[in-house]
Specification:
single chain; mainly beta; eight-stranded antiparallel sheet; about 0% helix; elongated
């Protein structure tokens, strides 16, 4: 089973304009719609959950059919990982007639989060000719470690002549343990 999917994608265009004031030899002159800015933004999110590593056993699924009842068993054990990527880019053109500035600008941002940990999961489903299908199970993750990193890079983002700017930061580092019995009973711990 493959658990990677595109979760969201967006595209937008925008423009804004406003009046500005220019000072020339002590005289203040107002220019209507003297500041104009237009840009486009593209973003998307992809992610994956419970992806098998080479150290995970293949998922075991077994169906037992007794004629009047069926019992289905699903069993997973091994090292699994999750990830999420959010990538966004913005670019446009800025004109300021009062300051006699004109430039193209842009920015690219990336958020990346990933986690890994051992997992044991067992699910049992029963379905009879008298009842509807009912499932219960157990999920144990004794140790799950995740981290998130955020980075941005841009050119003339705030004003013309600003130049190159960028940053990288570790947003979160989390350690957690989980024990859940599917019928709403469980214990979770995280730091």
């Amino acid at each position: 089973r493959i658990g990677v999917n595109i979760q969201e994608s967006k595209f937008s265009l925008s423009s804004k304009q406003r009046d500005c004031c220019m000072v020339n030899n002590g005289v203040i002159t107002s220019i209507e719609d003297g500041e104009i800015q237009g840009d486009g933004t593209l973003s998307f999110k992809i992610g994956g959950k419970d992806l098998q590593t080479p150290w995970a056993l293949p998922t075991i699924e077994k169906l037992f059919d007794f004629g009047v009842a069926e019992i289905e068993v699903l069993f997973e054990v091994g090292l699994y990982w999750d990830f999420a990527v959010n990538l966004a880019g913005t670019g446009g053109r800025r004109v300021n007639l009062c300051d006699d500035q004109e430039c193209f600008y842009g920015a690219l941002g990336l958020n990346f989060g990933a986690g890994i940990g051992p997992k044991f999961e067992a699910v049992v489903c029963t379905d009879t000719i008298w009842t509807r299908k009912d499932c219960t199970g157990i999920l144990i993750r004794p140790l799950y470690i995740s981290a998130a990193i955020k980075g941005t890079v841009g050119w003339d983002q705030s004003y013309c002549g600003q130049g190159f700017s960028g940053s990288v930061a570790v947003e979160a580092l989390t350690i957690k343990a989980e024990f859940n019995v599917w019928d709403g009973v469980g214990v979770n711990w995280s730091r």
